[in-house]
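Justification of computing resources. Each target in the renewal requires a structure prediction run like the one illustrated here; the chain below, 215 residues long, is used simply to show the kind of job we budget for.
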Amino acid sequence: MTPNKEDYLKCIHELGEQNGKISNKKIAEMMQVSAPAVSEMIKKMIAEELIVKDKTLGYYLTKQGLLVVSDLYRKHRLIEVFLVNHLHYTADDIHEEAEVLEHTVSTTFIDRLDQMLGFPRFCPHGGTIPPKGELLVEINQTTLGNIKKLGHYQLSRVHDDFKLLKYLEEHHLAMNSQIELLTIDDFAQTYHISYDNQTLTIPKIIAEQIYVNPI
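Resulting structure tokens:
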């Protein structure tokens, strides 16, 4: 399977996490490619039974497609753990490196890396590392944007996005930080939090990319 096709499958998976209808337009915007390129790839992936077209959902991954995506996430996230723990990459520098390596390393290499690292359960951004041959089931699934109850929470996962990571770094908000959700403004679509003697108002578009667990 080509790296390009693998990236399309990951794109559809990530769009599916947003719980909206997955269209050719959304895929094109996320992949930064033309609409004809998306249409051509979609036809190939449907023919190979990697995805299915649905009137309500748009597109969704078949079990075969999900297994491919799970394997990619396993590779990507194990590589991230290695880069941070052994090569001392910063959390916002590792994604691009891991993105390249996930398409080139062998399964044998990843299996041995998994063993060497002690079979870690999470990547540096809190994403779940699926066991070999199993579907990806994210343990941290509740976004700040889905929280309705004020109180204390722990930052458990963030989307692996460079701009998001830089935003969090600028505001000194790190993985496993303990926060207090002070107010939710439904009209302005903002979430006002406090942590480490400072406060921050987070827009919904960012709150939907930050995952928390109640304390």
